[in-house]
Design brief:
With 321 residues, this protein is α/β, with parallel strands linked by helices. It has helices at residues 18-27, 40-45, 48-52, 70-83, 97-101, 112-125, 144-155, 176-179, 187-196, 211-218, 228-232, 236-245, 253-271, 276-279, 292-301, 305-311, 314-317; strands at residues 6-9, 33-34, 38-39, 61-66, 87-92, 130-135, 161-165, 201-205, 223-226. The protein is built from 17 helices and nine strands.
Amino acid sequence: MNNKPYIAVAPMMDWTDRHCRYFHRLIAPHVHLFTEMVTTGALIHGDRDRFLRFDPTEQPVTLQLGGSGPADLARCAKMGEDYGYNAINLNCGCPSDRVQSGKFGACLMNEPELVADCIGAMMDLVHIPVSVKCRIGIDNSDDFSFLNKFIEETSKVKCKNFVIHARKAWLSGLSPKENREIPPLRYDIINEIKEKHSDLNIVVNGGIKTIEDTEQYLNSFNGVMIGREAYQNPYILADIERTFFDNMNILPREEVARAMIPYIAEQNRQYGTPAKSITRHMMGLFHSQPGGKKWRRALSEQSSIEEALNQMSEKNLEYAA
């Protein structure tokens, strides 16, 4: 943590890939970015370059790992450090069935000693910061004592950095989407944790949608993490830059769109990336703006790279100016 406020965009599966992060970075130079969760199995047995490569302009960017094997996590954290990531984060908050079957994500909150072993193994091997992202609890274990035990055990290995989602997770009966909406937000529990562990860096996540929310929670915690709002209404990041980083040199929406054109063309040329794999992250750029519906329609109806680039050309951006 430095003297600038710590504000981050949350890791979101299928959303915060490298194309999304490149787009967000054009809007917000100072906000911290996270990868979507990458499993240890994918890195050890799959194409690690496909999962780990990123554009240097994305920095500062944190690699979020999913796994429960200390040795495998340490190995993958080292990969992340070697690729140039700014920090490593362990996912202890995802409630999906697929993640639970691999014995990682939110179910790890039931095994704080194992989490401590995982964090310790990573911290022993890398020189960049390591953090934990968790929920306030799981199933019927959703009170202060449960979260406090998890935090105390994990911090025994000198882990100082925690991102806490203010909702608990139901490990069965709710979908991942419902787990982001139905369990009530309990910032009070995270407040108790911060009061008890004033030496720890506690970043709050969950339900934060406005500049006012961000300001309020920055007064209570060491940082704020914004999730779906930053994806669905990405230009809120411009307001964050102006408000919290005194940055008045923000690209207008139209310039952000124009700046994506050469990126889309280069990704297609170099990797064969379809334009839609990138422009899908840009749907909300003109959220609540005149012409926003036309913008979304233009991006959703494209059928080729040439058509996509043409629809984002100078002429077709005139309506949004």
